[in-house]
UniProtKB/TrEMBL annotation:
It comes from Mangrovimonas spongiae. Pfam families: Alpha-amylase, Malt_amylase_C. Residues 35-392 form the Glycosyl hydrolase family 13 catalytic domain. One of its GO terms (molecular function) is lyase activity. This is Alpha-amlyase. PROSITE patterns: PROKAR_LIPOPROTEIN. It comes from the Bacteria. The keyword Lyase applies. Keywords: Lyase.
Length: 478
């Protein structure tokens, strides 16, 4: 057990780089505890499941405390990393409602109150959103996760801030401005028009002092609250050299895990550990709808073998907060086949994601700008995630980090059936999946005695034919 030592400290944070200036803001008071949990390391990445925590919608209370109570449940799912969606105070100015209008334009006060705004419109990078609780509540979340062997990364919004962030008035030069000198919202460089993110102000990365202040704020949460890294929102819209310097600064404090919301190899080459497998996600959706075949996935796997380095990590997912709220639920996008794509995300090289509510087979588009809640009824899908998580955590053939297990495609003659083998350190798995709505047969190019992991039935492969029902799959272990 950990030895707990409560220390009350008030910290003024300095940046670690010699050209960074002392920040004007005093850090909040926070209780710190002595840690015995190992720092984040590459072994964690190999067999981890990552969980995206939507604190607002996770429970009826929508608080850190309500989420913290369920951290042992996430441990049962094989979760090793919790990604907490933005925890900072949300801007009141230009706060958006569900229909896209600003809450200030809503005359009815009670109607106006129900719109809580976007998590990604941050009014203070060092603040805690009071909707979720206090700094002490968040510290308890981090400490409880660590007690359960789980690391915590926080969603950070480096591309823009809300319109009432102190920088707006204190440092307008930190922002992109038009010819009239007015601060503007983010612009699509391809069209020269606004993306429509009118509730946020675009940051100017040509300003070095802004970069210094941003890095100092990021360092605070790692150094003083003991988080384990960041998920960087719209990372592809922020200069790569900024991230290189920021991550170097954080890693001088302690090892951190960095996830980029991007599919951009040069970010992985400049400090990030993992990025989104967006292309794979869209291929999953297209195959599920019958618009593509397994051939598209084969081509993707060949492509990333040449575009990514051996220590690059893809995050694979069947849903996340954007997909659920805007693109549709799993029942909408994968009505009969979410299980096979979920299993695929666990078995190909990389790290699988679970989004809040996914484990409870949520058939609901969560509201984005107002309060909502996920179900909490465990069913067959929950049990599937437990089984997949256990296999991911324990079988080295599913290692997917910087020292990933091998991936070998087998049986390419049937474009409707995916068969691949993975091996490492004496562990072996064979995945066999029918990615169509019709029965299929295949003869795996493998021999030996295996166990069907999910049914626990013995299977002998010796050139024999296997018949798979629509969307049926097997994970054979040896």
């Amino acid at each position: 057990m950990r030895k707990l030592i409560a220390l009350l400290v008030t910290i003024t944070v300095f940046t670690s780089c010699k050209d960074e200036k002392k920040t004007e803001k005093e850090s909040p008071v926070v209780e710190k505890q002595e840690e015995t949990m190992p720092d984040f390391n590459t072994n964690v990445e190999e067999q981890a499941v990552i969980y995206e925590a939507n604190i607002r919608q996770y429970s009826p209370e929508g608080t850190f405390d309500a989420f913290t109570k369920d951290i042992p449940v996430l441990k049962d799912l094989g979760v090793k990393v919790i990604w907490v969606m933005p925890i900072n105070r949300i801007s009141e100015v230009k706060r958006k409602a569900t229909d896209g209008q600003f809450t200030s334009d809503i005359e009815d006060e009670e109607e106006r109150k129900k719109y809580l705004g976007s998590y990604y419109s941050v009014s203070d990078y060092r603040s805690i959103n009071p909707e979720f609780g206090t700094l002490e509540d968040f510290q308890e979340l981090v400490d409880t996760a660590h007690e359960n062997g789980i690391y915590v990364i926080v969603d950070w919004v480096p591309n823009h801030t809300g319109w009432d962030h102190p920088w707006i008035t204190e440092h307008p030069e930190y922002y992109t401005q038009n010819e009239a000198g007015d601060i503007i919202d983010p612009i699509n460089p391809d069209t020269g028009e606004s993306w429509g993110w009118t509730d946020v102000a675009d940051l100017n990365y040509d300003n070095q002092e802004m970069r210094n202040a941003m890095i100092a704020d990021m360092k605070y949460w790692v150094e003083d609250v003991n988080i384990d890294g960041y998920r960087m929102d719209v990372a592809h819209k922020v200069p790569v050299d900024f991230f290189k310097r920021a991550i170097d600064t954080l890693k001088a404090v302690k090892p951190v895990f960095m996830l980029a919301e991007a599919e951009q190899p040069d970010l992985l080459q400049n400090g990030f550990d993992m990025h989104y497998g967006w292309e794979a996600h869209h291929i999953f959706n297209d195959i599920a709808k019958g618009h593509k075949t397994v051939k598209a996935l084969d081509e993707y796997m060949v492509k990333i073998d040449s575009t990514l380095q051996d220590d690059d990590i893809n995050m694979y997912f069947v849903t996340n907060h954007d997909e659920n709220s805007w693109a549709g639920t799993l029942k909408e996008r994968m009505p009969e086949n979410k299980e096979i794509f979920t299993a695929l995300s666990y078995t190909i090289p990389g790290m699988p994601l679970i989004y809040s509510g996914q484990e409870y087979d949520m058939d609901h588009r969560l509201k984005f700008f107002e309060k909502d809640s996920i179900p909490k009824t465990k069913g067959e899908y929950f049990e599937l995630l437990i089984k997949l998580g256990e296999l991911k955590n324990t079988n080295k053939a599913l290692n997917g980090g910087k020292a990933a297990a091998s991936y070998e495609r087998l049986n390419a003659e049937n474009e409707n059936v995916l068969v691949f083998k993975r091996e490492k350190s004496g562990d072996k798995i064979i995945f066999v999946g029918n990615f169509t709505a019709e029965p299929q047969t295949v003869t795996p190019e493998a021999s030996g005695d295996f166990t069907d992991y999910l049914s626990n039935q013995a299977i002998k492969l010796e050139g024999n034919e296997i018949t798979l029902q629509p969307w049926e799959y097997k994970i054979l272990v040896k």
